[in-house]
Amino acid sequence: MSPVAAAPDLHAVISSRITKRSSNACARCRRQKIKCSGAHPCAACSRRKLSCDFDDQDQKILVTKGYLTSLQERIANLEQNGGQRLYADAENSAPRVQSQEADATVETSVVTRLDVADGLGQEVQVASVGDTSQHGSLESDVSSLVNPFSSGPSAFMTSESGRIYYLGTSSNWSFTRRLLSVTYEHVHKRPIPPTALLFDGETYDLGWQSDRAATSAAALPTIDYATHLVNTVRFHCGQVFHLFDEDVFMGHLRDHYADSMQRCPARDLWLVHFQLILAFGKAFATKPRHGSRPPGVGFFVNALHSLPNMTVLWRDPVQAIEILCCVGLYLHCIDYRSSAYNYIGQAVRMAMSQGLHTDVPIEQLGEAIVQRYRKVWWTVYVLDREMTSLMGLPQSVRDEDVHTQLPTFQGDPFRTVAFIMRTKLSHFIASIDRAVYRPDGRLDNNFLMRTKDALAGLAGLTDELHERFPLLLDNDESGISRLSAHLHLLYNQVRLSLNAPGRQIQGLIVQCIVLATRPLLFCFFQIRLESLGSCLDLLNTSSTVRSVLQMCLDSSQHVVSILECLQHQGLLETFLSFDLEALFISTTNILVAPTLYPDSAASWAQWRHKAHMVYDELSRSGNLIAQAEQSELERLGGMLDSIDSSPARNVSNPPPNHAEPSSIAHSEAAPGELHPPLTMPPTPFPGGSLFDENYFGTELSAAQIMDMVNSIDSGHTQWVSQAMVEHGI
User: Fold this and answer.
1) Which of 119-123, 332-336, 501-505, 664-668 has the lowest mean pLDDT?
2) Same domain membership, residue 392 and residue 419
3) What pLDDT is recorded for position 515?
4) The domain containing residue 378 runs over which residues?
5) Is residue 489 part of a domain?
6) Which one of 34, 162, 565, 619 has the fewest beta carbons within 10 angstroms of its own beta carbon?
7) What is the pLDDT of residues 263-281, one digit of tens each?
8) Terminus-to-terminus CA distance in the chain, angstroms?
9) 149: in domain
């Protein structure tokens, strides 16, 4: 055969060895980032005898700039009109054949932004035209993945008195009840007795008597002491809540003491408001407290006795809303959560009936009235959002129905910014509740990806918070800002699952983180109760899941660091419940941590000690709720210690990962490494690890949070789903 004749055969052989990745790959090959034959079923799935699914949504498409412009115009019209029909039309009008005109084609993302009142926290949802494989391939992969707190039958507990309590999905109280119940049954092989638990409304005695007459004017304090108590309330609450209009309220106060004998309906309603403010003032000013009744409760009970019915309250709806907010906040602080939630619900409905949630025209009502309307509305909004989340119940007000602007405080720009930040974080609390704690625990069959989206949105606030409300925990000379501390605490609590001036802001960030990541922590705790080896094997399989867990635990550490600094400076809030709420959930997570990470148990013992030192301070102040919570946590800690000390297999060298090669495997840490490969902020002590006792609770930056968020993909979701199914969670 001549060389010329042999050439075609040689070319055919060479061509057969050059394989090109199919443009139409199945979902599994795309996820594993391996070549796909394009057949159905493909060669890779056939060899492994797996189902082979092709999803048209995975294909990248090219669109013209003109088409993107039309979509953006439709989105703008939708946001302006508040309708849903335009969105459906936009979907139905997608072109079947893309134009090849002179317009340059682009590969981009369409971003829908929900703006609440000129810059309130954004709930951003990204639908990438260029890369839809990640979300599009999830439907068939994670059909069994649910949030354990909101899936299956609802949970209830019965107190010693026989009252039945519902365990809400996102409630911190319910989360600890679940942990205590699961741990107690694991250790003692029987249900936990109700006498060992703290229930709503059982801590303080209000001394309520239905036939008790309202207080007389003679029982009120002198004008100088009353002014002092009012200023105390302004100092503790005025930075982030609007409980009274200063000009109107102080005008009534001067009129009352000038002529206390004059009676009129407006004066009677103001007296109710006045006694509620006095109740707060006494609670803030009295330290330490003794007995089973909180300070100022006499003023509070008298105010409730004098509170008229709704038909009378409607004569002055704005002041009535302020009164209802005072009642709800006071009840919340003394652990009457259900009653507080109902009073705030009345305030929300009265505010909406009055139109406070709308864009009230300044030209018609005037600047002073409009600013008061805005302050009242956003206070109601914040209290309703957070109390609803703490109850673990669905949010009742949709953000798309709120059109009023945020208020401004004349001559006090710092207070204006703090008020806005507080509102943004409360908005994120509601966003996380909707994303992670929806009914049946299913969010497009994927709560881990929804957790990712929630954390991504939260990361946008991180740098803004650090820039505007810095928290210098290691600077003893300058001290710590009480307002900043409050906001950072709430931030970390929202990361974990959302007051005197200057310290409140740092706390809000912590709540957001804890709220978003807590379901995953509970899942692994249940796996740990079954087998320490299985838990560590699963943790060593995915560095990204370890990253999410570590974010939860890091935030808990940061909460304790903030509260420890506040304690050293005498700034701990002993009546308002926000510091105690942050401490409660963070200490719970710290108690669980050594159960998941036994190699770092000694370091976690240091954090446990720090948390109990803060509890000791709150208990010495006379806070009975802190005393009861500390007793519960000591019981939980004792049971967890008995689990940790039980015989277990040697876990110093866990078995290697035999999973198939994938994009996940290339980013895995070495076996036995319990911490994710994130670039962490430096600690003030050389050589200290993130779980070291010297860790000072440094927060992650927005870039570091996004690095972790971007590492979550469909493979991790499928992995968590399989683990939950195997362990019956």
Assistant:
1) 664-668
2) no
3) 59
4) 217-283+295-401
5) yes
6) 162
7) 665 678 999 999 999 999 9
8) 70
9) no
